[in-house]
Amino acid sequence: MTKRKIILVPDEILRKKSEKIEKITNKEKQLADDLFETMYNKNGIGLAAVQVGVLRRMIVIDVSKKDEEKKPLWAILMILWPV
Question: Fewer CB within 10 A of the end CB, N or C, for the chain?
Answer without folding.
Answer: C
